Amino acid sequence: MNADPLAAHLCVNRYGDFTLTDAIRPALDVPVRPREGYRIEIFRDRTNRFRLPMLSAAVSSERLFDTFLALLEPLGDLVHVVLESSHGTGADRHTDLRRNQIDRPVLESHFCEFEDLLMNDGCTGIAVLGARRPIEVQFDEHKLLYVYAPDLRPFQRVLKKAGVRRRKSLALIAEAEHLHHSTDEREDQFKQLCLRVGVGDFDRVFSDESFS
Fold first, then answer.
1. How remote is the C-alpha of 75 from its chain's centroid?
2. Tens digit of pLDDT for each residue in 17-31?
3. Contacts with 33 (C-beta within 8 Å, 6 or more apart), sequence order
4. What residues have CB less than 8 Å from 109, skipping those under 6 apart?
5. Where are the domains of the chain?
6. Where is average pLDDT lowest: 98-112, 170-184, 198-212?
């Protein structure tokens, strides 16, 4: 691949009214043109014969982080959190690090402290689960938002307030060829976030001497 067209492509972060974070770019031929919106479908786990309503959303970067925090409110004040990392592994697989039962306001304060990492690192993702309700909100490494819940209406109201409209058809950047971006500094920041949140199995997964 010629480096000059690719370098120019990676500098493009705006498609119409939609602005990408630094974490992700579509492939050079832009197989999916990023746009804002959300769609609703049914998540099916055929192995366990499990079905659950699912919401998938793409939100322009200037409203993305605030929208993510607003989507956490319906989970209640006590939540579980999973920090997801694909640093050093390739984006096709990742490591999950979990912390059970943390106060949501405390967790949100940690997220705010590491906002730059969560927004702009293409190898960092988050899942927040209700401790008392079967609800999960994901802010994944593609900087897309996903919600799994029996009742999606509270989350639809959040998106409506943020100006994000429902679309019958919405292709997402993760569903076609794309490029992730991360740095060694971002990986170090992820480790700091893990320590701050207090996720389990941190020492087993990350053996960096500077964090021993």
1. 17
2. 999 999 999 999 999
3. 15, 16, 26
4. none
5. 16-23+31-202
6. 198-212
Residue 28 CB neighbour total at 10 angstroms: 15
In this prediction the pTM is 0.90
- The runs of H, that is alpha helices, within 84-152 are 104-113, 115-120
Please say whether the beta carbons of 25 and 154 come within 8 A.
no
User: What's the CA gap between 35 and 167, in Å, rounded?
Assistant: 11
Place of tokens 């053996």: 207
**pLDDT beyond 50 at 209:** no
Find all residues with CB under 8 Å of 121, minimum gap 6, and list them. Answer: 23, 141, 181, 182, 186, 189, 190
Q: Compute the residue count for the chain.
A: 212
Rounded Cα–Cα distance for residues 202 and 212 (Å): 10
- Check: CB of residue 63 under 8 Å from CB of residue 163: yes
